[in-house]
Backbone:
């Protein structure tokens, strides 16, 4: 890997920023591409690519590049983003970059897909790559279409399907859970026992690094998650342990919590908390990936870090 050059897209995002520093630490030279400028970092060359929904001239950005890590894309969001927009950014732009990478002689193309390419936000059974993909929204369909498009190219590629990623600077649902854990009051969430898979950002970064090696079988998709799924109650317990506090969780019946969520107009958020989604990383582990972070310990560190959640 020493001296090998990587084009990293999405380098200004939550995941991309972590990947940028980690890849440099591993000895790669990184050409970091993002919509906005990034502060100068030793070992990285920064380029702006603008909106992926518009045509991008990838050829000069791929000059001298050995590998591509494509983490840029339109993130999942509740709202009225048209399906066409997801297809433009997550499918068409990915395949345009992949075709340009093939023409430039890139050796490995790593695509950060999503577990939503495989499933909806909840699942009543454990998921694995052997399951027939069944995305339930425009975001998931756009990611799956990109994976399927990669399969039709004469290119050495790996697609990673991460579950919910957490780590320093995390936002949205996980940031809200960290803020709840930090409240100095008991929480009525002790009855939420359905388990969900999470992914520590350092484990995702290790998966990306492994995917760049010949040891990782290519031209296939992998589920990426921490090996141990946890319930919301277990997550909060781990976070409060990082704060040096007892769990302080009250086991209110889920039916009452569901009613309160409906009255507050938060039914969708509650359903994601109350129902499970377990995704097995067994395929990637069998290939040789070794996740360095243990889930409960990583959650404890996240909660204890004053800047841990955005």
Residues:
């Amino acid at each position: 890997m020493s001296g090998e050059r990587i084009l990293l897209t999405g380098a200004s995002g939550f995941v991309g920023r972590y990947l940028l520093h980690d890849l440099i630490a591993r000895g790669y030279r990184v050409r970091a591409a993002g919509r906005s400028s990034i502060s100068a970092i030793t070992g990285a060359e920064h380029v702006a690519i603008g909106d992926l929904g518009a045509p991008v001239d990838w050829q000069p950005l791929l000059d001298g590049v050995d590998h591509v890590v494509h983490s840029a894309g339109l993130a999942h969001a509740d709202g009225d983003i048209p399906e066409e927009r997801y297809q433009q950014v997550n499918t068409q732009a990915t395949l345009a970059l992949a075709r340009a990478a093939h023409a430039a002689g890139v050796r490995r193309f790593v695509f950060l897909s999503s577990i939503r390419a495989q499933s909806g936000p909840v699942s009543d059974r454990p998921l694995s790559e052997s399951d027939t993909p069944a995305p339930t929204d425009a975001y998931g369909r756009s990611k799956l279409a990109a994976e399927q498009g990669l399969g039709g190219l004469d290119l050495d590629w790996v697609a990673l399907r991460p579950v919910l990623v957490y780590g320093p600077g995390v936002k949205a649902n996980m940031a809200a859970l960290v803020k709840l854990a930090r409240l100095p009051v008991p929480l009525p969430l002790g009855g939420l026992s359905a388990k969900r898979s999470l992914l520590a950002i350092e484990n995702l970064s290790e998966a990306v690094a492994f995917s760049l090696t010949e040891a990782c079988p290519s031209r296939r998709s992998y589920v990426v998650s921490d090996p141990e799924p946890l319930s919301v109650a277990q997550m909060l317990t781990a976070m409060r342990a990082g704060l040096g506090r007892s769990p302080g969780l009250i086991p209110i019946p889920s039916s009452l919590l569901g009613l309160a969520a409906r009255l507050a107009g938060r039914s969708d958020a509650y359903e994601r908390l109350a129902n499970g989604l377990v995704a097995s990383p067994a395929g990637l582990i069998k290939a040789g990936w070794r996740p360095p972070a243990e889930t409960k310990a990583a959650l404890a560190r996240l909660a204890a870090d004053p800047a841990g959640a955005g």
Notes: The first helix runs from residue 14 to 25. The chain has ten helices and eleven strands.
